[in-house]
Amino acid sequence: MPIKAIVTDIEGTTSAVSFVFDVLFPYAARHLPDFVRANAERADVAAQLLAVCQDSGEPGADVERVIAILLGWIAEDRKATPLKALQGMVWEQGYQAGQLKGHVYPDAVEALQRWHREGYQLFVYSSGSIQAQRLIFGCSEAGDLSGLFSGYFDTTTGPKREAQSYQRIAQAIGLEAPAILFLSDIVQELDAAQQAGMATCGLVRDGGELAGHVNVASFAQIDLATF
Questions:
Q1: Do 87 and 152 share a domain, yes or no?
Q2: Could you read off the pLDDT tens digit of each residue along the chain, which spans 227 residues?
Q3: What's the order of all strands across the beta sheet hosting 199-203?
Q4: What DSSP string runs through 105-138?
Q5: Does the reported pTM lie above 0.90?
Q6: Helix H or strand E segment including 53
Q7: What domain count does the chain have?
Q8: Coil, strand or helix: which one is 212?
Q9: Under a CB-based contact definition with an 8 Å cutoff, are residues 174 and 5 in contact?
Q10: What's the sign of the alpha-carbon dihedral 81, 82, 88, 91?
Q11: How far apart are CA 159 and CA 196, in angstroms?
């Protein structure tokens, strides 16, 4: 079945892992405490703070305790949905202030632009919040790339290492799974997508092998006609 849509991971795939760990996470850790203190009464922020209390099993936690929990989650890179949402809010301020620019590999920019011109539907599936995804591509070093994408998926769709999440994505896109190509640098994610019936391609930018999948070192090596 010919590929009609491409779903891509971000970290390690379209963008350098170092950008997330060395730029975005430290920025959030520095600015999140003051952001939470200043905006704790804002409805969207308050909803996420309540979710932190529920997820951590501390329903009575005050703002300072919630901040401590969030910083702990950042340190351990926990894929917690309320943390991702709050990080996205903090990063939005950074992008708007010009303090942050999203990193996207030039080979990814070129391929995504070409695929979009050729009529393929493009989507993102990342553990970062949809807001954070939009910011990386919308405020990238290569300019505003947000117009290339037809939609975004995050952990609210489900864990990235479970086949059911990819089944939900196929249903949301409205295509049969074999018509969708999933790109990632994590073999467990590729395995889950493959189990759901999607075509898969692993990015091995720093070498190595993602067993059981087509491997490429850059987007320039991806030939959609071979899937």
A1: no
A2: 899 999 999 999 999 999 988 999 899 999 999 999 999 999 999 999 999 999 999 998 999 999 999 999 999 988 898 998 999 999 999 999 999 999 999 999 999 999 999 999 999 999 888 988 999 999 999 999 999 999 999 989 999 999 999 999 999 999 999 999 999 999 999 999 999 999 999 999 999 999 999 999 999 999 999 99
A3: 151-153, 121-125, 5-8, 180-184, 199-203, 214-216
A4: -HHHHHHHHHHHHTT-EEEEE-SS-HHHHHHHHH
A5: no
A6: helix 43-56
A7: 2
A8: coil
A9: no
A10: negative
A11: 13
142 and 171 fall within a common domain: yes
Query: Residue 17: which residues within 8 A CB-CB, separation 6 or more?
Result: 11
Give which of 170, 124, 175, 129 is closest to 148, Cα–Cα. Answer: 124
Domain boundary among 76, 96, 116: 96
Provide the CATH number for the domain around residue 164: 3.40.50.1000
Q: Of the candidates 96, 122, 142, which is a domain's last residue?
A: 96
Residue numbers of the domain that contains 221:
5-16+103-226
Tokens 């975004």 -> residue = 152
Asked if residue 125 lies in contact with residue 157, where contact means CB atoms within 8 angstroms, the answer is yes
